[in-house]
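Subject: Predicted fold for Glycosyltransferase EpsD, 385 residues

User T.R. writes:
Posting the sequence so we have a shared reference for the thread.
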Amino acid sequence: MSVRVLYLTCNPYLESTTRALSYWVAHADPEVMVRAVVPKKSELAAHMHACSVPMKGSALPWLNKTRPWTHLSEVFAVGKWAKQIGVDVIHCNEHNVYPFAASLRRALRKPVICHVRYQVSPGFASWMFRGRRAPDRLIWTSDQQKVDSMANWSEDVIWPESRTIPPGVDAERFAKADGAAFREKWNIPADAFFVVTASPLRPRKRVHEFLTSVGRLSQKNSKIWGMVAGREIAGDESYAKQIRTQCDQLNSNGRIRWIGHLDEVEHLYAAADLIVSTSEYETFGNSVVEGMAAGKPVVSYAAGSIPEVMADTGILVPLGDVDCLTREIEALTHQPDRCVEIGRIAQERAFGNYSPEASRVAFKTVYEELLPDGILNKRLNRGDS
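User M.O. replies:
I've generated the C-alpha coordinates; pasting them so everyone works from the same file.
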Protein backbone atom coordinates (compact mmCIF):
# COMPACT_ATOMS: atom_id res chain seq x y z
CA MET A 1 0.00 0.00 0.00
CA SER A 2 1.39 3.38 -1.01
CA VAL A 3 1.79 6.58 0.96
CA ARG A 4 0.53 9.54 -1.06
CA VAL A 5 3.07 12.36 -0.68
CA LEU A 6 2.53 15.93 -1.81
CA TYR A 7 5.93 17.47 -2.67
CA LEU A 8 6.26 21.24 -2.54
CA THR A 9 9.40 22.67 -4.14
CA CYS A 10 10.60 26.05 -5.35
CA ASN A 11 13.49 24.52 -7.31
CA PRO A 12 12.79 24.70 -11.06
CA TYR A 13 15.68 22.40 -11.99
CA LEU A 14 16.49 18.69 -12.02
CA GLU A 15 19.40 19.10 -9.62
CA SER A 16 20.36 19.99 -6.07
CA THR A 17 17.29 19.78 -3.81
CA THR A 18 15.12 17.86 -6.30
CA ARG A 19 17.52 14.97 -6.95
CA ALA A 20 15.75 12.66 -4.51
CA LEU A 21 12.39 13.47 -6.10
CA SER A 22 13.82 12.77 -9.57
CA TYR A 23 15.25 9.46 -8.37
CA TRP A 24 11.96 8.30 -6.89
CA VAL A 25 10.07 9.20 -10.05
CA ALA A 26 12.65 7.53 -12.31
CA HIS A 27 12.56 4.31 -10.28
CA ALA A 28 8.76 4.20 -9.98
CA ASP A 29 8.71 3.48 -6.25
CA PRO A 30 5.44 1.58 -5.62
CA GLU A 31 5.40 2.48 -1.93
CA VAL A 32 5.53 6.25 -2.34
CA MET A 33 3.05 7.88 -4.70
CA VAL A 34 4.30 11.35 -5.61
CA ARG A 35 2.15 14.38 -6.31
CA ALA A 36 4.24 17.47 -6.99
CA VAL A 37 3.72 21.22 -6.78
CA VAL A 38 6.55 22.82 -8.74
CA PRO A 39 7.40 26.15 -10.43
CA LYS A 40 5.33 26.74 -13.57
CA LYS A 41 6.91 26.27 -17.01
CA SER A 42 10.11 24.95 -15.44
CA GLU A 43 12.58 22.23 -16.33
CA LEU A 44 11.26 20.22 -13.38
CA ALA A 45 7.63 20.72 -14.45
CA ALA A 46 8.41 19.40 -17.93
CA HIS A 47 10.13 16.36 -16.41
CA MET A 48 7.22 15.61 -14.07
CA HIS A 49 4.79 15.89 -16.99
CA ALA A 50 6.92 13.55 -19.13
CA CYS A 51 6.93 11.01 -16.28
CA SER A 52 3.13 11.25 -15.86
CA VAL A 53 3.44 12.48 -12.27
CA PRO A 54 0.35 14.33 -10.99
CA MET A 55 1.56 17.92 -10.89
CA LYS A 56 0.42 21.47 -10.37
CA GLY A 57 2.40 24.61 -11.12
CA SER A 58 2.71 27.24 -8.41
CA ALA A 59 5.10 29.90 -7.15
CA LEU A 60 4.18 28.92 -3.56
CA PRO A 61 3.97 32.58 -2.47
CA TRP A 62 4.43 33.74 1.10
CA LEU A 63 1.65 35.61 2.87
CA ASN A 64 1.93 39.33 2.20
CA LYS A 65 -0.14 41.53 4.51
CA THR A 66 -0.67 44.14 1.81
CA ARG A 67 -1.66 41.54 -0.83
CA PRO A 68 -2.90 38.51 1.16
CA TRP A 69 -5.13 37.28 -1.65
CA THR A 70 -2.12 36.18 -3.74
CA HIS A 71 -1.10 33.71 -1.06
CA LEU A 72 -4.58 32.68 0.00
CA SER A 73 -5.91 32.10 -3.50
CA GLU A 74 -2.91 29.92 -4.32
CA VAL A 75 -3.33 27.91 -1.10
CA PHE A 76 -7.00 27.42 -2.01
CA ALA A 77 -6.16 26.28 -5.56
CA VAL A 78 -3.43 23.87 -4.50
CA GLY A 79 -5.53 22.58 -1.61
CA LYS A 80 -8.52 21.92 -3.85
CA TRP A 81 -6.36 20.02 -6.33
CA ALA A 82 -4.67 18.03 -3.54
CA LYS A 83 -8.02 16.95 -2.11
CA GLN A 84 -9.14 15.72 -5.52
CA ILE A 85 -6.11 13.49 -6.06
CA GLY A 86 -5.66 12.41 -2.44
CA VAL A 87 -2.78 13.23 -0.10
CA ASP A 88 -1.56 11.64 3.13
CA VAL A 89 1.56 13.69 3.92
CA ILE A 90 2.92 17.06 2.80
CA HIS A 91 6.67 17.13 2.11
CA CYS A 92 8.04 20.68 2.13
CA ASN A 93 11.19 20.15 0.09
CA GLU A 94 12.93 23.43 1.05
CA HIS A 95 12.40 25.25 4.32
CA ASN A 96 11.90 28.60 2.57
CA VAL A 97 8.68 27.10 1.15
CA TYR A 98 7.38 26.36 4.64
CA PRO A 99 5.28 29.54 5.00
CA PHE A 100 3.13 28.23 2.14
CA ALA A 101 3.18 24.67 3.51
CA ALA A 102 2.01 25.89 6.93
CA SER A 103 -1.09 27.47 5.38
CA LEU A 104 -1.71 24.43 3.21
CA ARG A 105 -1.55 22.16 6.26
CA ARG A 106 -4.40 24.13 7.83
CA ALA A 107 -6.43 23.72 4.64
CA LEU A 108 -5.75 19.99 4.18
CA ARG A 109 -5.33 18.97 7.83
CA LYS A 110 -2.43 16.74 6.88
CA PRO A 111 0.95 16.32 8.61
CA VAL A 112 3.96 18.20 7.23
CA ILE A 113 7.63 17.36 7.16
CA CYS A 114 10.01 20.22 6.42
CA HIS A 115 13.37 19.62 4.78
CA VAL A 116 16.02 22.15 5.85
CA ARG A 117 18.36 22.82 2.92
CA TYR A 118 20.68 25.54 4.20
CA GLN A 119 20.85 27.15 7.63
CA VAL A 120 17.70 28.36 9.36
CA SER A 121 18.13 31.97 10.47
CA PRO A 122 17.16 32.91 14.06
CA GLY A 123 14.27 35.09 12.90
CA PHE A 124 12.85 32.44 10.62
CA ALA A 125 13.25 29.78 13.32
CA SER A 126 11.37 31.91 15.87
CA TRP A 127 8.48 32.26 13.41
CA MET A 128 8.61 28.67 12.17
CA PHE A 129 8.57 26.92 15.54
CA ARG A 130 6.05 29.10 17.34
CA GLY A 131 3.18 27.10 18.84
CA ARG A 132 1.16 25.02 16.41
CA ARG A 133 2.98 26.46 13.42
CA ALA A 134 5.88 24.05 13.81
CA PRO A 135 6.17 21.21 11.27
CA ASP A 136 5.49 17.67 12.43
CA ARG A 137 9.00 16.56 11.50
CA LEU A 138 12.17 18.40 10.58
CA ILE A 139 14.68 16.81 8.19
CA TRP A 140 18.37 17.74 8.11
CA THR A 141 20.84 16.72 5.40
CA SER A 142 23.77 16.44 7.84
CA ASP A 143 24.45 16.56 11.57
CA GLN A 144 26.75 19.57 11.17
CA GLN A 145 23.99 21.53 9.46
CA LYS A 146 21.75 20.85 12.46
CA VAL A 147 24.43 21.96 14.93
CA ASP A 148 25.22 25.14 13.00
CA SER A 149 21.57 26.14 12.67
CA MET A 150 20.60 25.47 16.26
CA ALA A 151 23.63 27.36 17.56
CA ASN A 152 22.05 30.56 16.25
CA TRP A 153 18.56 29.98 17.59
CA SER A 154 17.29 31.65 20.74
CA GLU A 155 16.84 29.50 23.83
CA ASP A 156 13.06 29.80 23.73
CA VAL A 157 12.83 28.07 20.34
CA ILE A 158 11.32 24.61 20.74
CA TRP A 159 11.98 22.51 17.67
CA PRO A 160 9.99 19.45 16.58
CA GLU A 161 11.32 15.93 16.36
CA SER A 162 14.00 15.82 13.69
CA ARG A 163 15.98 13.34 11.64
CA THR A 164 19.17 13.52 9.61
CA ILE A 165 18.64 11.95 6.19
CA PRO A 166 21.50 12.60 3.78
CA PRO A 167 20.69 12.68 0.06
CA GLY A 168 21.67 9.66 -1.98
CA VAL A 169 23.91 9.45 -5.03
CA ASP A 170 22.76 7.19 -7.84
CA ALA A 171 25.53 4.65 -8.50
CA GLU A 172 23.99 3.66 -11.85
CA ARG A 173 24.63 7.12 -13.28
CA PHE A 174 28.33 6.95 -12.52
CA ALA A 175 28.73 3.35 -13.70
CA LYS A 176 27.55 4.47 -17.15
CA ALA A 177 29.60 7.68 -17.32
CA ASP A 178 31.93 8.07 -20.33
CA GLY A 179 34.94 10.18 -19.43
CA ALA A 180 36.86 9.44 -22.62
CA ALA A 181 34.02 10.69 -24.81
CA PHE A 182 33.74 13.84 -22.70
CA ARG A 183 37.45 14.58 -23.13
CA GLU A 184 37.18 14.05 -26.84
CA LYS A 185 34.15 16.33 -27.11
CA TRP A 186 35.92 19.17 -25.30
CA ASN A 187 39.36 18.52 -26.78
CA ILE A 188 41.01 17.64 -23.47
CA PRO A 189 44.26 15.78 -24.22
CA ALA A 190 44.55 12.26 -22.89
CA ASP A 191 47.73 13.16 -20.97
CA ALA A 192 46.29 16.36 -19.42
CA PHE A 193 45.78 16.57 -15.64
CA PHE A 194 42.16 17.69 -15.72
CA VAL A 195 40.90 19.64 -12.67
CA VAL A 196 37.18 20.47 -12.48
CA THR A 197 34.53 22.05 -10.31
CA ALA A 198 30.76 21.90 -10.76
CA SER A 199 28.88 24.72 -9.10
CA PRO A 200 26.24 27.36 -9.79
CA LEU A 201 27.82 30.76 -10.30
CA ARG A 202 27.09 32.52 -7.04
CA PRO A 203 29.47 34.34 -4.67
CA ARG A 204 29.31 31.87 -1.79
CA LYS A 205 30.63 29.12 -4.07
CA ARG A 206 33.90 31.08 -4.53
CA VAL A 207 34.44 29.78 -8.04
CA HIS A 208 36.86 32.66 -8.62
CA GLU A 209 39.23 31.08 -6.09
CA PHE A 210 39.17 27.80 -8.00
CA LEU A 211 40.05 29.71 -11.17
CA THR A 212 42.84 31.61 -9.42
CA SER A 213 44.39 28.37 -8.15
CA VAL A 214 44.14 26.41 -11.39
CA GLY A 215 45.24 29.46 -13.37
CA ARG A 216 48.48 29.68 -11.39
CA LEU A 217 49.21 26.01 -11.93
CA SER A 218 48.32 26.10 -15.61
CA GLN A 219 50.87 28.85 -16.17
CA LYS A 220 53.56 26.66 -14.57
CA ASN A 221 52.52 23.36 -16.15
CA SER A 222 51.00 23.17 -19.63
CA LYS A 223 49.49 19.76 -18.88
CA ILE A 224 47.11 21.19 -16.26
CA TRP A 225 43.65 21.94 -17.65
CA GLY A 226 40.70 23.36 -15.74
CA MET A 227 36.93 23.51 -16.25
CA VAL A 228 33.95 25.06 -14.48
CA ALA A 229 30.47 23.64 -15.05
CA GLY A 230 27.48 25.46 -13.61
CA ARG A 231 24.57 27.66 -14.51
CA GLU A 232 24.16 31.39 -14.00
CA ILE A 233 21.77 32.23 -11.14
CA ALA A 234 19.15 34.95 -11.27
CA GLY A 235 20.17 37.72 -8.88
CA ASP A 236 23.85 36.85 -9.13
CA GLU A 237 24.42 38.08 -12.67
CA SER A 238 27.30 40.33 -11.66
CA TYR A 239 29.18 37.38 -10.19
CA ALA A 240 28.57 35.30 -13.30
CA LYS A 241 29.99 38.17 -15.37
CA GLN A 242 33.06 38.22 -13.10
CA ILE A 243 33.61 34.48 -13.65
CA ARG A 244 33.21 34.76 -17.42
CA THR A 245 35.72 37.61 -17.50
CA GLN A 246 38.18 35.68 -15.35
CA CYS A 247 37.87 32.62 -17.60
CA ASP A 248 38.43 34.77 -20.69
CA GLN A 249 41.58 36.22 -19.17
CA LEU A 250 42.91 32.78 -18.27
CA ASN A 251 41.85 31.18 -21.53
CA SER A 252 44.59 32.61 -23.73
CA ASN A 253 46.12 29.15 -23.77
CA GLY A 254 42.76 27.41 -24.23
CA ARG A 255 43.17 25.26 -21.14
CA ILE A 256 40.70 26.84 -18.68
CA ARG A 257 37.02 27.15 -19.51
CA TRP A 258 33.54 27.72 -18.17
CA ILE A 259 31.07 25.56 -20.10
CA GLY A 260 27.77 26.47 -18.46
CA HIS A 261 25.26 24.00 -17.08
CA LEU A 262 25.58 20.25 -17.64
CA ASP A 263 22.58 17.95 -17.27
CA GLU A 264 24.79 14.87 -17.07
CA VAL A 265 27.60 16.06 -14.84
CA GLU A 266 28.76 12.49 -14.22
CA HIS A 267 30.59 12.50 -17.56
CA LEU A 268 32.57 15.56 -16.45
CA TYR A 269 33.58 13.79 -13.26
CA ALA A 270 34.48 10.62 -15.12
CA ALA A 271 36.78 12.65 -17.39
CA ALA A 272 38.44 14.50 -14.51
CA ASP A 273 41.60 13.63 -12.62
CA LEU A 274 40.63 15.79 -9.64
CA ILE A 275 37.45 17.44 -8.33
CA VAL A 276 37.64 20.67 -6.33
CA SER A 277 35.06 22.42 -4.13
CA THR A 278 35.64 26.01 -2.99
CA SER A 279 32.21 26.62 -1.47
CA GLU A 280 32.26 28.65 1.75
CA TYR A 281 29.47 26.60 3.32
CA GLU A 282 27.74 23.35 2.43
CA THR A 283 24.96 21.63 4.35
CA PHE A 284 25.78 18.42 2.48
CA GLY A 285 27.83 18.97 -0.67
CA ASN A 286 26.26 17.19 -3.64
CA SER A 287 29.17 17.97 -5.95
CA VAL A 288 31.66 16.61 -3.43
CA VAL A 289 29.76 13.34 -2.98
CA GLU A 290 29.29 12.98 -6.74
CA GLY A 291 33.02 13.44 -7.23
CA MET A 292 33.60 10.74 -4.63
CA ALA A 293 31.07 8.48 -6.39
CA ALA A 294 33.02 8.93 -9.62
CA GLY A 295 36.04 7.43 -7.89
CA LYS A 296 38.08 10.62 -8.08
CA PRO A 297 40.08 12.44 -5.38
CA VAL A 298 38.37 15.53 -3.99
CA VAL A 299 40.10 18.62 -2.61
CA SER A 300 37.69 20.86 -0.74
CA TYR A 301 37.51 23.75 1.67
CA ALA A 302 36.67 22.47 5.16
CA ALA A 303 33.33 24.25 5.00
CA GLY A 304 30.15 23.36 6.86
CA SER A 305 29.34 19.66 6.53
CA ILE A 306 32.13 18.73 4.10
CA PRO A 307 34.44 17.26 6.80
CA GLU A 308 31.52 15.13 8.03
CA VAL A 309 30.63 13.96 4.52
CA MET A 310 34.17 13.28 3.30
CA ALA A 311 35.55 11.95 6.59
CA ASP A 312 39.11 10.80 5.82
CA THR A 313 38.53 10.06 2.12
CA GLY A 314 39.73 13.36 0.64
CA ILE A 315 41.86 16.43 1.24
CA LEU A 316 40.53 19.33 3.30
CA VAL A 317 41.89 22.87 3.00
CA PRO A 318 41.24 25.84 5.32
CA LEU A 319 38.44 28.04 3.99
CA GLY A 320 39.75 30.76 1.71
CA ASP A 321 43.37 29.59 1.75
CA VAL A 322 44.04 29.70 -2.00
CA ASP A 323 47.77 29.14 -1.52
CA CYS A 324 47.15 25.92 0.39
CA LEU A 325 44.55 24.85 -2.18
CA THR A 326 47.08 25.40 -4.96
CA ARG A 327 49.77 23.40 -3.14
CA GLU A 328 47.46 20.45 -2.58
CA ILE A 329 46.34 20.36 -6.21
CA GLU A 330 49.90 20.65 -7.43
CA ALA A 331 51.06 17.83 -5.16
CA LEU A 332 48.44 15.48 -6.62
CA THR A 333 49.57 16.21 -10.17
CA HIS A 334 52.79 14.36 -9.28
CA GLN A 335 51.11 11.49 -7.40
CA PRO A 336 48.93 9.46 -9.80
CA ASP A 337 48.95 6.35 -7.58
CA ARG A 338 47.78 8.41 -4.60
CA CYS A 339 44.99 9.89 -6.72
CA VAL A 340 43.76 6.41 -7.62
CA GLU A 341 43.83 5.24 -4.00
CA ILE A 342 42.04 8.31 -2.65
CA GLY A 343 39.43 7.94 -5.37
CA ARG A 344 38.86 4.27 -4.56
CA ILE A 345 38.32 4.93 -0.85
CA ALA A 346 36.09 7.92 -1.59
CA GLN A 347 33.92 5.88 -3.94
CA GLU A 348 33.47 3.16 -1.32
CA ARG A 349 32.29 5.76 1.18
CA ALA A 350 29.93 7.43 -1.28
CA PHE A 351 28.20 4.23 -2.29
CA GLY A 352 28.25 2.79 1.22
CA ASN A 353 26.91 5.83 3.08
CA TYR A 354 24.88 7.86 0.59
CA SER A 355 22.53 5.44 -1.10
CA PRO A 356 19.32 6.85 -2.63
CA GLU A 357 17.60 3.63 -1.61
CA ALA A 358 18.57 4.18 2.03
CA SER A 359 17.27 7.73 1.76
CA ARG A 360 13.99 6.47 0.28
CA VAL A 361 13.50 3.96 3.10
CA ALA A 362 14.25 6.61 5.74
CA PHE A 363 11.71 9.03 4.27
CA LYS A 364 9.07 6.32 3.93
CA THR A 365 9.55 5.53 7.62
CA VAL A 366 8.98 9.18 8.53
CA TYR A 367 5.88 9.37 6.33
CA GLU A 368 4.37 6.28 7.94
CA GLU A 369 5.11 7.59 11.44
CA LEU A 370 2.94 10.61 10.70
CA LEU A 371 -0.08 8.73 9.40
CA PRO A 372 -3.01 8.22 11.76
CA ASP A 373 -3.14 4.65 13.06
CA GLY A 374 -4.86 2.34 10.66
CA ILE A 375 -5.21 4.76 7.74
CA LEU A 376 -3.39 2.46 5.31
CA ASN A 377 -5.49 -0.51 6.38
CA LYS A 378 -8.69 1.48 5.86
CA ARG A 379 -7.60 2.45 2.36
CA LEU A 380 -6.63 -1.14 1.62
CA ASN A 381 -10.08 -2.37 2.66
CA ARG A 382 -11.67 0.25 0.37
CA GLY A 383 -9.42 -0.80 -2.50
CA ASP A 384 -7.77 2.63 -2.75
CA SER A 385 -4.26 2.96 -4.19
